[in-house]
Amino acid sequence: MTEQTANTNLRGALFALVAFGVFATHDVVIKYLGASYSPFQIVFFSVLFGFPIITFLLMRDASGGHLRPRHPWWTAARTCASVLTGVGAFFAFSALPLAQVYAILFAAPLLITVLAIPMLGEKVGWRRGIAVLVGLGGVMVVLQPGSTELQLGHFAALTAAATGAFASVIVRKIGREERSVVLILYPMMANFVLMGAALPFVYEPMPIIDIGASAIIATMALVASTCLILAYRHAQAVIVAPMQYSQIIWASLYGILLFDETLSRSTLIGTGIIIASGLYIVLREGQGGTSRTTPVLRTRSRSGTPVAPRVGQFLSEEQRGLRSQPPEDNTTG
């Protein structure tokens, strides 16, 4: 590795750390609002304030075409999954300790690896298969079924992890053929319409400071996504992807300082297991020759954030890794 490559990778890693730090702060605002408002209301207003920002970004989409999806059923499935991911994540952040939510959401890369088998034709060898099983075992350590009373927040976080992984794999499946504007706009419109329909049943009047907090959620999502775009422009995916686990540090600090939360031993141990297995999968994919589609490394946008733009649309084909596909092989990964 040359000195220039090392420097660009370092800049990419720093941009990624900033991005996930902002995302963690974004989640703190969600938790603050979640103490007083329904997740439907929080999602609605965050999407409402995000529309002008996203519309401005979509104006730069110079690709020709229309807004009718080329893959309507996959687009509909992704839209439904994205709505469930946002509501599930927002509810989980309001109901559970921050670190515990992240521990469960960190299972998403493991689920992406599993879903890539039937949906992308990915071949997962015994090493990555064991890593997935170990990681999912870490989720069980966090949840402690049987000894801990599972709450609706736990199921919401699990739902967000599963549907977020499903939506990410769909993007890998149809992302090259579907316009980015379609992949961004349909979930946002669905969130706006569905959350708006639910709003009369859950609405609570919001003082100006809480309305401002909703706008801050949308703004932070944009700032974090911008930093993530810069990270992938500077560094390889194998450098940027592991930085997502830094969110557990922010979650622990914010939880202790702002919400009087404590990091339980089961959460600490389970999180360590999940992160270790996730890192192993990322590093295996980064080696090349062990994955035909590298589904985790090419899943760049953070799920569970309804107003965050897709990172991939702002990267060149080379930065997205589309020009140099790994050869199809039968090796065990």
Please specify the SSE layout and strand pairing.
Elements: H1 3-34, H2 39-58, H3 72-95, H4 98-105, H5 108-120, H6 126-143, H7 152-174, H8 180-202, H9 208-234, H10 237-240, H11 247-259, H12 265-287, H13 317-320
Helix pairs in contact: 1-3, 1-9, 1-11, 2-3, 2-8, 2-9, 3-7, 3-8, 4-11, 4-12, 5-6, 5-7, 6-12
Account of the 3D structure:
The chain is mostly helical and 333 residues long. The protein has a domain at 3-97 and 151-261 and 300-316. The protein is built from 13 helices and no strands. The chain has helices at residues 3-34, 39-58, 72-95, 98-105, 108-120, 126-143, 152-174, 180-202, 208-234, 237-240, 247-259, 265-287, 317-320. Helix 2 crosses helix 3 (72-95), helix 2 (39-58) crosses helix 9 (208-234) and helix 5 (108-120) packs across helix 7. The longest helix is centred in the first third of the chain and has 32 residues, at 3-34. The radius of gyration is 19 Å and the shape is globular.
